[in-house]
Amino acid sequence: MTKKYDVVVIGAGPAGYVAAIRCAQLGLKTICVEKWHDDKKEAVFGGTCLNVGCIPSKALLDSSHKFAEAQKGFDVHGISLEKLAIDVPAMIDRKAKIVKQLTQGVKGLFTHNKVESIQGTGKLLKDKKVEVTDADGKTQTIEGENIILAAGSEPISIPPAPVDQETIVDSTGALEFSAVPKRVGVIGAGVIGLELGSVWARLGSEVTVLEALEDFLPAVDQQVAKEAKKVLEKQGLDIKLGSKVSGTKLGGKGKNKTVTVSYTDKDGDQEIVFDKLIVAVGRRPVSKDLLSDDCGVEIDKRGFVVVDEQCATKVPGVYAAGDLVRGPMLAHKGSEEGVMVAERIAGKKTQVNYDLVPFVIYTHPEIAWVGKNEQQLKEEGVEYSVGTFPFSINGRAMAANDTAGLVKLIAHAKTDRVLGAHIIGPSAADLVQQVAIAMEFSASAEDLGLTMFSHPTLSEAVHEAALAVGGHAIHAANKRKRN
User: Fold this and answer.
1) Cα 73–chain centre separation
2) Does the N-terminal or the C-terminal CB of the chain have fewer CB atoms within 10 Å?
3) Active site includes 455?
C-alpha cells in the first residue's frame, strides 16, 4: 500500500529541509527524501551547502585567514610568533566536525518537528507519486497531496579539464587537500573560484586564476569590483582575465603529479603548470532523472524547473525551490522560497522579495551587495546619487588593522530611497544586511543618516556613506556642496 502524505519534499538542502520543517510546523504530514547518505546508508541532511559548500568552505576560509593574519598581521599589534605552521589534516578535520554537527542538527530538527525522512533518490511520477530508490537499489513509491522539488545543484564540468578529484578537482575536491600545494590553478574567477583560491593562497600556494571573461566580477558594482581585484592581487592571487582554457595534460607520478593547462589570451596560446587545478566555472540544477516524462512538470533549456513567482509549476500542487529554479543559486534564497512554498500550501499569501536578495563573496575582505548597482541604474535610465565611505578612516577598522575597502550607498536622486548597497571590507556581509533591512522598509538615505550608530563600530561606515549621499558626511571630505 502506497503511503500518503500532505507534503513530499525531494531534497534536504537549504530549500528542502527548511520547507519540510515549515510544512510540519503548519500541521502538514511531511516526509523528506534525501539521496545523500553515510557509511551506514542513512540519510545525511543539509545538501551541498552544509556538506560540501557554504559551511565547509567558510570553515577553511576562517582557518586560513587566521593563519595568514598570524603570519603577516600580528606584528603590527606587537605580537611575535616563532615557528608558525599549518596542520592541514587538522584543519580539514575541524571542518568535517563542523559539518557533522550541523547536519546532525538538521536531523534533530526533523525529529523535533515530526518530519519523517527517507534515504533515497526521489523521482516525481504522474499524479504526484514519488519513486524512491535507496542506496541498495531498492525502490518504493510514496504519494503526496503536494510535492516540493528541491534537488539542488552540482558543479559544472568542462571538456578541456576533466575532473579526477585528485589532480583536477571541482569545488568539493578543493575542500579535501591533505597538504598545501605549491602551485594551484583555478578556472573561473567567480564566487567559488575566488573563495577557494583565497584559502590556498593564504596557506602558501602560488595561485593563478584563469577567467575567460574580460571583466572582473561583471555582476558586481564596478567600483567595488575594481577595488576587490586590487586587494586580491595584493594578497597574491594572480588573476588572468580573458584567458580561455583549451586543454589540460597530466604529468608526473604519485606526489609529483602535475597538470599542464593550455589557454589562450590576448597574447596568443599559453601554457602553465600546476600541482592542483580547481574547476570552478559554475553550477547547474540537478534535474536529470528527477522527473518522469509524463509527470507534467516542465524543464527549460538550461535544466531549470519552470515555476512562477511563487515557485509553483504548472501542475497543481507541485512546487520547486532553491537551485533547481530560476534566480541566483544562494542558500538563503532557497530557504526563503522553501518557507514561501510551505506557507502557500497552508493557504497563506507569503511572497519572496526577489529585489532584495543579498549576495556575498567570503574572501577577506568580504564583498557584499544588495539591490541595484550603478551600471544597472545607468542602463535603466534611473537618476541616482551616490555616497561612499572608506574603511581606511573608520576608527574600529583602524583599531583592528582591517582597513581595506569601502561602503557605497546608492539612492534615487529625487525620492532619496535607497536603491542599493555595495560593500567590500571587514564584515561586509553583516553590514549589507543592515541596509537590506532598511530597504525592505523603503528607507531613504536620509533615514539611515538620521539613525544613531554606536561608536566605534564598522557600522559607522554605513552611516557615513548614507550621509555622503546628501553631501554631508562628517568624517570624510564631501564631493559636493552640503545642504
Assistant:
1) 27
2) N
3) yes
Contact 424, 395 (CB under 8 A): no
Does the pTM surpass 0.85? The reply is yes
- pLDDT value at position 254? 87
Residue pair 270/243 in contact (Cβ under 8 Å)? The answer is yes
Peptide bond before residue 14 is cis, with ω within 30 degrees of 0: no
Domains of the chain: 3-155+284-355 (3.50.50.60), 168-281 (3.50.50.60), 365-469 (3.30.390.30)
Residues within the annotated binding site? 58, 122, 188-195, 211, 282, 323, 329-332
- Binding-site residue positions for FAD: 58, 122, 323, 329-332
C-alpha cell at 232: 586580491
Chunked mean pLDDT (size 10), the chain, 483 residues: 95 98 98 96 97 97 97 95 95 98 98 98 98 97 98 98 98 97 98 98 98 98 98 98 98 94 98 98 98 98 98 98 98 98 98 98 98 98 98 98 98 98 98 98 98 98 98 90 51
Q: H or E segment at 247?
A: strand 244-251
Cell triple for residue 174? 578543493
DSSP secondary structure of 4-34: EEEEEEE--SHHHHHHHHHHHHTT--EEEEE
Residue 187, all three cell numbers = 578556472
Q: Which three cell numbers stand for residue 460?
A: 559607522
Sole residue written with cell 572608506 = 390
Dihedral of CA 401/402/404/406: which sign? negative
**How many other CB atoms sit within 10 Å of the CB of residue 440?**
12
Residue 126 φ/ψ, nearest 5 degrees: -65, 150
Termini Cα distance of the chain: 75
For residue 215, give the C-alpha cell: 571583466
Could you identify the residue written with the cell 582557518? 63
Choosing from 455, 463, 472, 475, which is the catalytic residue?
455
* pLDDT tens-digit map of 363-382: 999 999 999 999 999 999 99
